[in-house]
């Protein structure tokens, strides 16, 4: 067993870059320290949307600011002959060269990538995106090093919710990480590499309570359904109150204020003005 541990954890794109830097941490620490990585939501796919132009933006950044030194050397060497060293900005190309043990936390339907990279809310495109991401995590990450592991969830979110996301078997992220790290720290073979929620998008049940609220708010179609249901419930409540009052009173409708009532409105229901203030208008049953 090694004498100490160094855990590097981060979220978002810097989490992706953190993976590249793990190599230098491991080399500096030598054998005295166990170095592991815990990136959250950093597995960004190489994709070019005509509006967002995410891939072009990172390619420009790499060339403009000469990011070579911050990339994994093995990745740079692999792409130097083709002049595509910028590809090392993307985890799917860089991770095959990271040998430091890494436990990847990654939403399959990353809300940030859906907005800024894929640039779509279409469930069919998101399901395809999630399947592609899952396959790349398997081939370009897990299969490259038997010490790597990943927790893939199907919640539409980006970063966070440590301890609240669980597999269908009830295993949380901290529990999965602890089981994985116990083997790494004791220099034993990793018994399990993947913990995953396999449900397709959208899956509100895959999220924690707080994340479900955030994900639901950011899904326009679902939010529209909720607003529609709330409006319908409000109208139904007003109508029921009106029905109750007028059935008991048996009073006729007065339409002198607004003229002819719409054909869909019951004859016992009418608008009225309360008091002298013409701006104080409401719908109520005639008493």
Overall strand count: 7
Beta-strand residue fraction: 5-15%
Overall average pLDDT: 77
Number of domains: 2
Q: Biggest sheet: strands side by side, in what order?
A: 3-4-5
Unreliable parts: 209-218, 251-259, 268-287
What does this structure look like?
Strand 6 (269-273) and strand 7 form a beta hairpin. Helices cover 41% and strands 14% of the residues. By secondary structure, it is an alpha/beta fold. The protein contains nine helices and seven strands. It folds into two domains: 4-208, no CATH class; 222-285, no CATH class. The chain has a three-stranded parallel β-sheet, sandwiched between helices. Strands 1-2 form a two-stranded parallel ribbon. The protein has a two-stranded antiparallel ribbon with strand order 6-7. Its main location: secreted. It comes from Cymbomonas tetramitiformis.
